[in-house]
Amino acid sequence: MLTRRQYAGLVAVAGVTGLVGGGLSNVLMMGRAAQAGQAENVVRADRFEAREFRAMDKDGQSRASLVVRDDGTPRLVIRDKDGKRGAGIEVGADGTLGLWLCDKDTKVLVALGLRADGTPRLLLRDKDASPGASLEVRADGTPGLTLWNKDGQSRAGIEVGADNSSALTLWDKDGTPRASLAVLADDTPGLVLRDKDRKSRAGLELGADGTPHLVLADKDEKARVGLGVFDGGAAKLWLNDKDEKTRARLTLSDDGSPYLGLDDKDGKTRAGLELGADGTPGLTLKDKDEKPRAMLGVLADGSPSLRLGDKDGKVLWRAP
């Protein structure tokens, strides 16, 4: 049964900070002084070298910043006219690459990252900057989508496995996977339901031959009830004991004849009740070697029939 996969941590992007002043002050001062004397001042050069460069609007508001921080990592930030909404791109000391977008409250709501191992991840946050959805491709090339609630708890996930299987997992408010819908590598679909202790309690699957099966399990994940429809039209219900040994079977054959079998703890059928295709009922009781010892029935003409046999199958007594 398919289990919940663990998802990677949030993409490493730096928080939003204020823009700092810095280098090229002579060039900037010259540009501002030129505003008083002329409409335009153009500075041309083959190369500028500085730790930081800031672009200002006509009101002196910083709108863009390119800086190399003390740890040698570069960062580019652009802002709106109020210095709030903006976007940034930066490279971390560990080689991670991040692109982020922030709202009017300078909260990062969109983050696109490339981690040190080369795996990409997109993170979307709500207005409170809590994670809402993430899309990633893991190191083995498998993609995964995760959705969170407003409290930051993952509630749904979709993934494709390395074996080409696909799965949808749903978590409860405590982060426990409670339901999984999957299509396995052999293209057979299945549904698994779990209790609050992560134990699989119910499973529904469709076999490779198209036959459906339902299994119900106890708190120890042992199959106790099974229901299936088989190729040809036969249907079967079986009940297992706590050791998963079948003790009772109800079968409806493809000709519509029902049969109830009762088994002992060793898996031997000891009693069988059936209704033939002609509508005649019969009850058979067997010994521990599954040999019929007593047979009770009603014949087609309505008369009762009883036969008693020994361990070798010889009839000891019969009526009529």
Attribute tags:
320 residues, mainly beta, Outer Surface Protein A, domain 3, 24-stranded antiparallel β-sheet, 1 helix, 4% helix, rod-shaped, disordered N terminus
Structural class: mainly beta
Query: Can you give the helix content as a percent range?
Result: under 10%
Residue ranges: pLDDT <50 for 5 or more in a row? 1-39
Oligomerization: single chain
Amino-to-carboxy terminus distance: 55 Å
Tell me how many strands there are: 24
Shape: rod-shaped
Mean pLDDT: 86
Q: Report the sheet-strand fraction.
A: over 45%
- Radius of gyration from the alpha-carbon trace, in angstroms: 36 Å
**Main beta sheet:** 24 strands, antiparallel
Helices and strands, in order, run as HEEEEEEEEEEEEEEEEEEEEEEEE
Number of helices: 1
